[in-house]
TrEMBL record:
<protein>
    <recommendedName>
        <fullName>Pyridoxamine 5'-phosphate oxidase Alr4036 family FMN-binding domain-containing protein</fullName>
    </recommendedName>
</protein>
<feature type="region of interest" description="Disordered">
    <location>
        <begin position="216"/>
        <end position="242"/>
    </location>
</feature>
<feature type="domain" description="Pyridoxamine 5'-phosphate oxidase Alr4036 family FMN-binding">
    <location>
        <begin position="49"/>
        <end position="166"/>
    </location>
</feature>
<feature type="region of interest" description="Disordered">
    <location>
        <begin position="170"/>
        <end position="198"/>
    </location>
</feature>
<dbReference type="GO" id="GO:0010181">
    <property type="term" value="F:FMN binding"/>
</dbReference>
<dbReference type="InterPro" id="IPR024624">
    <property type="entry name" value="Pyridox_Oxase_Alr4036_FMN-bd"/>
</dbReference>
<dbReference type="InterPro" id="IPR012349">
    <property type="entry name" value="Split_barrel_FMN-bd"/>
</dbReference>
<feature type="compositionally biased region" description="Basic and acidic residues">
    <location>
        <begin position="173"/>
        <end position="191"/>
    </location>
</feature>
<dbReference type="Pfam" id="PF12766">
    <property type="entry name" value="Pyridox_oxase_2"/>
</dbReference>
Length: 299
């Protein structure tokens, strides 16, 4: 009997903690709301993160870089936090998208190529807004961790921070808020070789969409992910295996999103020497000075 009561108490305490946590993160998120338009205004003077170049060097060893993306869900009945993890394609640092030849050609032909003038230390991946991770990101104020295991260098990278989801209509308040947060992490490149023309959010999201093959673009017109197979979509536009050439296909673009992660903590493990594993935690301080502090940890 006592055990059952203790379990119930534990559940309700966890649910309360989760609710408080969510509301704190949401407050934080809402406090950063600002009006925002399609083109870019100011950019940050953040220096490159100290872990950036080694991270890129390690990731470059992977032919086709994928990462495990972890978020937090909540049990609908008890409110208890539940871990969730899935594989996603790593799409580089936001603002620095390396376009495939065919995507670049299509964007150029259609006059939709952004000048390459920004860089950042924010990790990007693409997703479908109907997937559960998007709701989980919203519910937790963006709580996220991504993980890479790079066997070639015997290194594990865990990057934690806050995720922002962009790709909705620019008139949506949540889209404006997300863009304005992402903008804070963008730096103007020091060389001026990025080309001409005006940079816009719309062009940037479209470039991520263009970098998918027609079949992958078509996946954003699939039946609602995660719903029972027996449940046929009401909308005749939604089916598997479609190939989409149009970069502005209204159905696919309604569902397509770019998730941008502002990294706040990096936990790196180096297993090169089996007798002496090494581990570091590099954390962004919260004084507003964008200073990173590195601490060596016992592995
Ligand atoms: C190799 C591989 C790459 C994947 N890349 C992505 C990706 O970039 N974005 C994405 O949303 N899902 C990707 N997926 C599918 C996810 O792992 C997951 O099944 C899907 O996103 C639904 O997850 P959710 O319901 O937890 O949001 C990939 C799966 C595999 C196996």
């Amino acid at each position: 009997m006592n055990r059952i009561i203790n379990q119930a108490e534990r559940k309700s305490k966890l649910a309360l903690a989760a609710t408080k946590y969510r509301s704190r993160r949401l407050q934080h998120h809402i406090s950063h709301l600002s009006t925002h338009t399609g083109t870019m205004a100011a950019t940050s003077s953040i220096p490159p993160a100290p872990w950036r170049s080694l991270f890129l060097e390690h990731i470059s060893k992977l032919d086709d870089p994928y990462m495990s993306v972890s978020t937090v869900a909540f049990d609908p009945k008890t409110g208890i936090p539940l871990p969730r993890v899935r594989t996603c394609g790593f799409r580089g640092f936001f603002g620095e998208l390396k376009l495939h030849h065919s995507a670049e050609k299509q964007l150029k032909d259609e006059g939709g190529l952004n000048p390459s003038i920004y860089e950042s230390d924010m990790i990007a991946f693409t997703t479908d807004v109907r997937m559960e991770k998007v709701e989980q990101i919203k519910e937790t104020g963006g709580a996220i961790e991504v993980l890479f295991w790079v066997k070639e260098v015997m290194g594990q990278w865990r990057l934690r921070g806050q995720a922002f989801v962009i790709g909705d209509s620019e008139s949506e308040a949540s889209e404006k808020a997300a863009r304005s947060e992402v903008e804070k992490g963008l730096r103007k490149k020091s060389d001026n070789t990025g080309g001409s023309g005006e940079w816009s959010w719309e062009k940037e999201v479209t470039a991520y969409f263009a970098n998918h093959s027609p079949l992958m673009r078509g996946s954003f017109k699939g039946p609602h992910p995660g719903t029972p197979h027996s449940q046929k979509p009401d909308d005749p536009n939604l089916s598997l295996g479609q190939k989409v050439k149009d970069l502005h296909d209204p159905v696919a673009r309604r569902h397509f999103r770019v998730v941008v992660i502002r990294v706040e903590e990096v936990d790196r493990l180096d297993l090169n020497d089996p007798e002496k594993a090494l581990r570091w935690k590099t954390t962004l301080d919260h004084t507003g000075h964008q200073r990173w502090e590195e601490l060596e940890l016992w592995p």
